[in-house]
Specification:
With 416 residues, the chain is of the alpha+beta class. It has two domains: 204 residues, no CATH class; 192 residues, no CATH class. The protein is 53% helix and 19% strand. It contains 15 helices and ten strands. The protein has a six-stranded mixed beta barrel with strand order 2-3-8-5-7-6. A hairpin with a 2-residue loop joins strand 2 and strand 3. The chain is elongated.
Length: 416
C-alpha cells in the first residue's frame, strides 16, 4: 500500500495539531502509554522467565549430564570399548562412568531414602559441577575402600549428620540368612556436603566412590553407564539420534531434555501463556486507538469533505487516518521496547532498590536458593513483541479509517 506525500503529511499534521476536543488528545496519550507499558511488561516478564529457565537448567545440569549411555539391563560391562568410541566423537567434551542405585540412609533414629551415585572423583568435574557447590569437604576425599560419602545439604540436615559422622546405607539387594532375607548394610563416613540449589538433589542424592558402589551393589567390574558433556547442550537431542546410529553395541541413550522433559515443557507452556495474557494488555491499549480515531473522524468531517471536493480519493482519506493511528502505535511500541530493554538489562539493580523501598526481601535465598532475580534478554522475543504491538495498532486503524473514507462531502458540509 503506497502512501503519497500529502497523505503522510496530513496524517502527521493531524497527530501533532492541537485539537479542539482535548478528550481526543487524552485518549491518544492514554493509548500510547498503555501500549508502551504493555510492551515493556512483556519484555521484562519474558526476560525474567528466560533467566529463571536458564538458571534452573544450569542447576539441573550441574548434577545431571548432557547425555547418558547405559546398558539395556542397567549394567555396562564393556566400558573401555564404549569410552573409546565416545572419545572419537568431536562433539563430546568430557565423559565419566557412574554407578546408580537406591538406598536407605540411617543415622540414629532417623532414616531417609535416596539415590546413591558412584563416581570417579578425578573425572566427575568433566560432566558435573559438584566441586563449585561443596559446602564442606571435597570430592577428592572420596577414596576407594575407605567408604566415604558426600551428602546433599538437605539430606544431611534431615538426618542430623555432620562431617565425620557415620551413616548406614541399606540397599534393596538382600542377603539370604537362616532368618530369611535381610537387606545388605554398610557404614559410610560423611566426608563432604554439597548444595546445588535444587531440592531434588540436595535432599535425595549421595555420592560415593565408584569402586565402593560396585562392591555395595555387587556389580563386579561393571558400571551403570557413562555420562557425557557436550560442546553444545542444545544439540543433545540430535546427537542422541546420531549416537544411536553410530555406536556399535546394545545401549540405551538419553539426554537432558528427556530426563527432565516435563519440567522444561511446563516452563515453556508457562512462558507462552504469559505471552498471550500480557499481549491482551497491549491489545486493550491498541484498540483504544479505535476510540481515538472514531472521535477524530467525527471532529474532522468538514476537513474530510473539503479534501474530497479537492479530488482526494476515499483510499487517500483512509490512508490519512491510518497514518495518524499507526503513529500512536509506533511511538508507544518504541517507548515500550526502549523501557523494557533497559529494565530487563538492569533487573538485578532495580529489584534491590524495590526491596529497600518496601523494606522486605522479595526472594529469600533460603526459600528460592537465589540471591538475585535472573534476567536474560532474548532479542527474538523483543522482535516478536514489537511486531505484535505494531500489528495490533495497525489493525485498530482499519475500521475508523474505512468509516472516514465512506463520508460523503455533501452530507458532511450540510450543517457547516
Amino acid at each position: 500500500m503506497m502512501i503519497r506525500p500529502y497523505e503522510l503529511w496530513i496524517g502527521l499534521r493531524y497527530t501533532r495539531a492541537k485539537r479542539r476536543n482535548h478528550f481526543i488528545s487524552f485518549i491518544s496519550m492514554t493509548s500510547m502509554i498503555g501500549i508502551a507499558l504493555g510492551v515493556m511488561a512483556l519484555i521484562v516478564v519474558l526476560s525474567v522467565m528466560n533467566g529463571f529457565q536458564e538458571e534452573l537448567r544450569n542447576r539441573i545440569l550441574g548434577v545431571a549430564s548432557h547425555m547418558e549411555i547405559t546398558g539395556p539391563d542397567g549394567r555396562l560391562t564393556d566400558l573401555p570399548a564404549l569410552a573409546e568410541q565416545v572419545r572419537r566423537q568431536p562433539e563430546v567434551r568430557g565423559q565419566a562412568p557412574f554407578v546408580n542405585g537406591q538406598a536407605l540412609l540411617a543415622f540414629g533414629a532417623e532414616t531417609k531414602g535416596g539415590m546413591v551415585r558412584g563416581i570417579v572423583p578425578a573425572v566427575e568435574p568433566q560432566v558435573a559441577e559438584f566441586d563449585s557447590h561443596m559446602k564442606s569437604g571435597r570430592l577428592d576425599d572420596l577414596k576407594p575402600g575407605e567408604f566415604g560419602v558426600v551428602l546433599g545439604a538437605d539430606m544431611a540436615r534431615s538426618l542430623g549428620v555432620f562431617i565425620g559422622d557415620k551413616v548406614t546405607l541399606m540397599v534393596p539387594q538382600g542377603v539370604i540368612t537362616p532368618a530369611g532375607m535381610l537387606p545388605r548394610m554398610k557404614q559410610f563416613t560423611v566426608v563432604g556436603l554439597f548444595q546445588m540449589g535444587m531440592y531434588e538433589y540436595d535432599a535425595g542424592l549421595a555420592l560415593i566412590h565408584i569402586e565402593d558402589a560396585q562392591k555395595l551393589y555387587r556389580m563386579g567390574d561393571a558400571v551403570s553407564g557413562l555420562r557425557l558433556k557436550l560442546a553444545d547442550m542444545e544439540r543433545a537431542p540430535l546427537l542422541t539420534r546420531d549416537f544411536a546410529k553410530t555406536l556399535q553395541g546394545d545401549y540405551y541413550i538419553s539426554d537432558w531434555t528427556m530426563s527432565h522433559a516435563n519440567f522444561f515443557r511446563a516452563v515453556q507452556i508457562e512462558k507462552r501463556m504469559m505471552f498471550i495474557i500480557l499481549t491482551l494488555i497491549v491489545a486493550v491499549a491498541a484498540f483504544n486507538i479505535v476510540s481515538t480515531l472514531v472521535m477524530a473522524v467525527t471532529d474532522k468531517q468538514a476537513d474530510i469533505a473539503i479534501l474530497r471536493t479537492l479530488g482526494a480519493s476515499p483510499s487517500s482519506i483512509m490512508k490519512v487516518f491510518m497514518v495518524q493511528g499507526s503513529l500512536i502505535g509506533v511511538i508507544g511500541t518504541l517507548l515500550g521496547v526502549l523501557g523494557g530493554v533497559v529494565l530487563a538489562l538492569n533487573v538485578e539493580t532495580v529489584v534491590p532498590l524495590i526491596e529497600r523501598a518496601l523494606r522486605m526481601d522479595l526472594f529469600p535465598a533460603d526459600v528460592y536458593y537465589i540471591s538475585e532475580l535472573p534476567s536474560k534478554l532474548v532479542w527474538s522475543d523483543v522482535a516478536w513483541i514489537g511486531g505484535v504491538a505494531l500489528g495490533l495498532s495497525f489493525l485498530a486503524t482499519l475500521y475508523p479509517s474505512r468509516r472516514a473514507a465512506s463520508i460523503q462531502p455533501a452530507e458532511a458540509l450540510r450543517y457547516e
